[in-house]
Amino acid sequence: MSRLRRALLLVFLGGLTLAGLIYVRLAGADLFRRPAATVAGATPLPPGRIRLAVLGDSDSQSYHDTLRAAEPNARGGAYRATTWQWTEVLARLRGDQIDQGQWGAWGTNRYRAYIDDAFGRLGRAPAKEDYRYNFAISGAWCNQLMGPPMRQATRLVALMDTEPQAWRGGVVLIRIGINDVGAHDVLDDMSRDPNGPLTTSKINGCIGEIGKAVELIRKHHPDTNVLLIGVLSNADWSGEFDSWQSAQAIANIDAGLNRFDAGLRKLAATDRHVAFLGDRAWFARLWGTRDDHGRPAYKTVHLSPGWAISNTSGDDPHNAATSDGHAGVVWNTLWAQHLVLSLNAAFGLQIKPVTDAEVVRFLQPSFDASERSASQARAPVTEN
Q1: pLDDT tens column, 236-249
Q2: What is the chain's Cα-based Rg?
Q3: What's the pTM value of the predicted model, to 2 decimals?
Q4: How many CB atoms lie within 10 A of CB 278?
Q5: In a 10 Å sphere around its CB, with 0-12 CB exposed, 13-18 middle and 19+ buried, how is residue 205 labelled?
Q6: How do residues 242-269 score in pLDDT, each as one tens digit?
Q7: Domain map of the chain by residue range?
Q8: In the chain, N or C: fewer CB atoms in 10 Å?
Q9: Boundaries of each SGNH hydrolase-type esterase domain copy (predicted)?
Q10: Residue 198 in this model has a pLDDT that exceeds 90
Q11: Under a CB-based contact definition with an 8 Å cutoff, are residues 192 and 250 in contact?
């Protein structure tokens, strides 16, 4: 064998060996991983202030991330500067009481993160701009709570382990599942049979992964609370209004999604530090539902001073959803208001409720931008 071939063989074998070591370490992370160093002098947070971490998908990833959501038409398009995710709303309205971590660029590519995981460092992927304790990533599936490439729950817990005292009384919010059970093909199958094999597989898979994440968090941080958020129905999204226009189809979809929520309720029922918060009931109270024939029959939300927000899609704040199918600024602001009350009720916290007046003040810049845009569109074009 020539020297070149021997050298190439050694490099190849070395690569295999390194890959094997990384795989073994990742496969047995709890056995091999060295705990990340505890922050020196870490103490509990001041009274009245709590830590909040988030696991999930695009329903929770911050909109003003310029690393992963840099497309000009994403998350509000022309109105992006005043279109906020609920986490961003909380940071602005209750940042003095709710600590989501420093805003910044966090994470690396998946391969660097795997190596960091394997050798006891704080791995995190993908890279994004967000609050430090927000691990939600657009497009995430339930199996990425524990598994690659994101490993959201395991990586969050490794970070929490560096400051265990600060997480006493804190909250981990898990809001995930819409990419698993909300896809058109899954809802279509569900509309025919809410107990069909595809629906059952997706729901059971999600609940199983969420259960593992809850168990991991509770094992490492027994004084930290976990809030499980129920799944929304994409049948309520304007992009699907032409689908499933029958009472039976919508009833079947509701029954299937109820099975998902029932699984979360079951997880919460056995642990006083775990709670469930339904999402579809909250949406229905504001914007309503389809009618008895499965046709869209949604209400309009009216906010002072005369703002009307319909269950339509568009980047102007008068739409409930953005053009790219995510919650708009009004939806997210009202949900943040609802979340504060729910956290207080579930875990006995004392976060100051967000008042209706605060909601209006916060939304004023969004509607001002809308009015300026409308005024410019109405202005007559003058000829030179």
Answers
A1: 999 999 999 999 99
A2: 23
A3: 0.89
A4: 18
A5: middle
A6: 999 999 999 999 999 999 999 999 999 9
A7: 49-285
A8: C
A9: 95-305
A10: yes
A11: no
